[in-house]
Amino acid sequence: MRADRLYLFALMGWFFAAYLLGDSGRLALLEGRAPQVILFGLTALLLVNSVVLPGFRSWLASLDLRRLVAVHVGRFVGIYFLILHGRGQLPYDFAVKGGWGDIAVAVGAVLLLFVPGLIARRGVVLAWNVVGLLDILFVVATAGRLAAADPSSMRALLRLPLSLLPTFYVPLVIATHVWIFWRVWRSPAAALVADRR
């Protein structure tokens, strides 16, 4: 089986498991920092596997950088944060500050993907990646702080569809930021977008 298919099936399996967990209602029963422990545990698992599994590491090295950047287009989820804040379901500090940050990073991802030659500019990619990583870490830290102060304020993140954020999407976002740094530092600019499968 080709690596693309193998890792696509693994990604789909993970998504399905995260969906079932959210649908079961068990995630909504978690207290304290348990959601963050899950999020960082899954992120660590992705990053460790990308180091210790030669096949996975090789596959990541062969990917066109655009595939990793494309993951971040999903950060338009920030629009939904703003909607939920308007309905009183998410607090301002998380929904508005984090929501607008995510929207800005998603717009940057779209520009990198569709403005000719932009993704081959190492400085631009690095600047976007730094901003994107700082934004997602801010969002995670804010969610943890608000949940510790008032667990009910962040309950929306423990129910579908937002439960997919800590159990699937955010670990992938953080890991792809790390992989993008790795790719940019080790590849000449011309190789950043060369799909060498």
Give the SSE map.
Blueprint: H1 3-24, H2 34-52, H3 54-62, H4 65-70, H5 78-86, H6 92-114, H7 122-149, H8 164-186
Number of separate helices: 8
Q: Find the count of extended strands (DSSP E, 2+ residues).
A: 0
Largest sheet, strands/sense/barrel:
none
User: Spans of 5+ residues with little confidence (pLDDT < 50)?
Assistant: none
Task: Please tell me how large the radius of gyration is.
Answer: 17 Å
The N- to C-terminal Cα distance equals 13 Å
- N-to-C order of helices and strands: HHHHHHHH
**What is the molecular shape?**
globular
Task: Find the structural class using helix and strand composition.
Answer: mainly alpha
What number is the mean pLDDT? 92
Molecular structure report:
This protein has 197 residues and is mostly helical. The chain has one domain. 71% of the residues lie in helices and 0% in strands. The protein contains eight helices and no strands. Helix 2 packs across helix 3. The protein is globular and about 50 Å long. The relative contact order is 0.17. The mean pLDDT is 92.
Task: List key phrases describing it.
197 residues; mainly alpha; 8 helices
In short:
The chain has 197 residues and is mainly α. It has one domain (3-191). The protein has eight helices and no strands.
